[in-house]
Amino acid sequence: MKTLFRNPFILLIVVALLWGGNAVAGKLAVGHVSPMLLTSLRWLFACVFIVPFAWQDAVREWSLIRQHWLTLFLYGALGFTTFNALFYWALNYTSAINVTIEQSAMPLIVFLGNFLLFGLRPVKLQMLGFSLTLLGVLITVAHGDLSSLLSLDLNRGDALMLLATLLYGGYTVALRFRPPLYWRSMIMVLAFFAFISSLPFSAYEYMAGYTIMPDARGFGVVLYIAIFPSLIAQSLYMRGVDLIGGNRANLFINLVPVFGSVLAVVILSEEFKTYHFLALSLVVGGILMAEQGVKKSLAHKSV
Length: 303
Description:
The protein is an all-alpha fold and 303 residues long. It contains 14 helices and no strands. Helix 2 (8-29) runs antiparallel to helix 12 and helix 5 packs antiparallel against helix 10. It is globular, with a radius of gyration of 19 Å.
């Protein structure tokens, strides 16, 4: 098990699988629990589950947590709460397949952020890989009709998902500045701040009359999301970023649409259209090409 935890590629593939399942779970929640309440319950249950394991770590590192509380709050509020609120909101207007493919824009945002803030330059194969990925995302957003981009005739859900993707890409870039907390402490604190920052969203949803209390299916979705995409996947993602860096780790998010699309077809019986196949081919080709570019660059530097 320790060997697996040291292998970034296995960790990040598991992350992609769990996040692909998150899109399907979010789609199953539509009509059974409202999106903002789902976000609050997700992080409430995540806190309940992680506290028994992380409490002693957090107590030991309390001075560090107190020193960096604002940074940690922003991680939880933007990377966890706002991203997920937009994510589940988007699923009320577009398909799980579209949402998972649109997440593939994250590596582009991460590379752009790292270039602008830290001067990290991608190699040529990475740039070509990003271009293929971006084309795949654009095809998905346009539902196979790129001319709709010119008229800005976009689905509301797709637009919300792109905004969510922008936020999580920024969160990934900002992880470079996170304090040196043990991973259990980090997840517990971020889950707590994510819950606190989600309450205004849920309050607004309630006052606007849009709240849907969870039924049996809604409650099941909450439990799944709290344990797997929240605690397990977020912990493994941070570990993956530590091992190979944000640029390379974020490329594996491009596997989310592969797993998400398969799960959406099998579980939700969503229609897998020709443009989905084309977009997925571009996305997978992009990640392979970009990763190959990194390997060649590292090999050249070691010579």
